[in-house]
């Protein structure tokens, strides 16, 4: 299936670039879908990219995070590829938001929220020593 639109971004791995990254996603999504869905997509993408920057142990600013945004008639597909440490977010998503809150945990809320908002697939690209995370968001009214 061919996408209706595609945009590829290469992000420097620093928090200073997150604002521009969010704006690029907003431009790509334009006015398609509800504002709630657009905000959820931005939250999910921001959470994953922030975790890569904060915890991925990227050794150099030369290493870019590749983000591929694709629009299909009934869904969006977002693909993030990075050179960070191997990390499958599906294995990190364990406890519920309630149990995290009750335990007084300081982290894990973002990844737990992702599980509720999107389908997330992880693949380790061994030959290139890269991570690939793919998210799918169904278009439609989510108000």
From TrEMBL:
Keywords: ATP-binding, Nucleotide-binding
Protein name: ATP-binding protein
Pfam families: HATPase_c_2
Gene3D superfamilies linked: Histidine kinase-like ATPase, C-terminal domain
Single GO molecular function: ATP binding
Residues annotated as domain Histidine kinase/HSP90-like ATPase: 14-135
């Amino acid at each position: 299936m061919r996408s209706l639109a595609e945009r590829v971004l290469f992000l420097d791995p620093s928090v200073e670039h997150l604002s521009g990254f969010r704006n690029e996603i907003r431009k790509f999504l334009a006015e398609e879908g509800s504002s709630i869905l657009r905000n959820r997509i931005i939250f999910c993408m921001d959470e994953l990219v922030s975790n890569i920057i904060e915890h991925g142990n990227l050794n150099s600013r030369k290493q870019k995070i590749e983000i591929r945004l694709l629009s299909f008639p009934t869904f969006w597909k977002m693909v993030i590829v990075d050179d960070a440490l191997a990390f499958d977010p599906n294995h990190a998503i364990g406890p519920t938001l309630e149990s995290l809150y009750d335990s007084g945990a300081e982290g894990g809320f973002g990844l737990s929220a992702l599980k509720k908002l999107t389908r997330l697939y992880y693949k380790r690209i061994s030959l290139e020593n890269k991570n690939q995370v793919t998210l799918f968001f169904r278009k439609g009214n989510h108000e």
